[in-house]
């Protein structure tokens, strides 16, 4: 098969994959049921991070696989060029936050939990988008064309994966192998979100 043939075949496969994923997420959005996504996942725990509609600033509500509201995510309104996004429990108590700490390069964002800094995510200057993670000994591998991210530990084992679905949908799907990583996972999703989109 020639180069053009390979490109055409890859394009067809990608369109089929996108159509399938979009159909599943659209079903979830229309019915508020997450059974379809849960049944297709091999992860031990899944969270759905849904963008709030009719909101001036970015805001999200986090649901578990049983469609139970777990957390709320909000971006700060007044940041003076230093965007910040915060994680709250359902009673609006702040749990953690991610904020721009330095504008060197394209920006370094600090990840904090209960007021303690845990690590950073840096968006590097490059022809392609590059995110360097210094957080819990984990490595972040992102496919920005597919809006998909995978997190691995120091041994190369997958810890979690999530999709940034803003290109066509308004929901992140966070899949984890360990339920204890849910707060860290949400903070990491928030870090990627603010690094790519800011507070807009």
Helix and strand topology:
Elements: H1 3-31, H2 35-40, E1 45-51, E2 59-64, E3 69-75, E4 84-89, E5 94-102, E6 107-113, E7 116-124, E8 130-135, E9 139-143, E10 148-152, E11 158-163, E12 171-176, H3 182-197
Antiparallel strand pairs: 1-2, 1-12, 2-3, 3-4, 4-5, 5-6, 6-7, 7-8, 9-10, 10-11, 11-12
* Number of H- or I-type helical stretches: 3
Reading off the top of the CATH hierarchy, the class is best stated as Alpha Beta
Distance between the termini: 44 Å
Q: Can you list the strand order of the major beta sheet?
A: 8-7-6-5-4-3-2-1-12-11-10-9
What portion of residues belong to β-strands? 35-45%
Low-confidence stretches: 6-40
What fold name goes in the CATH topology slot? Tubby Protein, Chain A
Oligomer: single chain
**Mean pLDDT across residues:** 76
Morphology:
globular
The tally of beta strands, per DSSP, is 12
Would you give an account of this structure?
The protein has 200 residues and is α+β, with helices and mostly antiparallel strands. It has a single domain (34-197), classed as Tubby Protein, Chain A. Helix content is 26%, strand content 40%. It is built from three helices and twelve strands. It has helices at 3-31, 35-40, 182-197; strands at residues 45-51, 59-64, 69-75, 84-89, 94-102, 107-113, 116-124, 130-135, 139-143, 148-152, 158-163, 171-176. It has a twelve-stranded antiparallel beta sheet, covered by helices on one side. A hairpin with a 7-residue loop joins strand 1 (45-51) and strand 2 (59-64). It is globular. Mean pLDDT is 76; it is low at 6-40.
């Amino acid at each position: 098969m020639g180069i053009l043939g390979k490109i055409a075949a890859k394009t067809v496969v990608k369109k089929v994959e996108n159509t399938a994923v979009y159909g599943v997420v659209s079903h979830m959005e229309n019915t508020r049921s997450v059974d379809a996504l849960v049944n297709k996942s091999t992860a031990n725990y899944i969270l759905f991070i849904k963008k709030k509609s009719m909101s001036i600033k970015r805001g999200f509500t986090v649901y578990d696989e049983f469609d139970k509201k777990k957390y709320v995510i909000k971006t700060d309104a007044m940041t003076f060029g230093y965007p910040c996004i915060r994680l709250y429990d359902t009673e609006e108590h702040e749990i953690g936050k991610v904020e721009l700490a330095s504008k060197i390069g394209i920006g370094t964002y600090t990840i904090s939990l209960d007021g303690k800094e845990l690590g950073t995510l840096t968006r590097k200057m490059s022809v392609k988008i590059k995110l360097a993670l210094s957080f819990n000994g984990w490595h972040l591998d992102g496919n920005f064309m597919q809006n998909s991210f995978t997190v691995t530990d120091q041994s190369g084992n997958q810890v979690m994966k999530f999709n940034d679905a803003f290109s066509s949908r308004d929901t992140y799907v966070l899949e984890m192998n360990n339920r204890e990583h849910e707060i860290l996972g949400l903070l990491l999703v928030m870090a990627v979100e603010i690094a790519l989109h800011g507070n807009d």
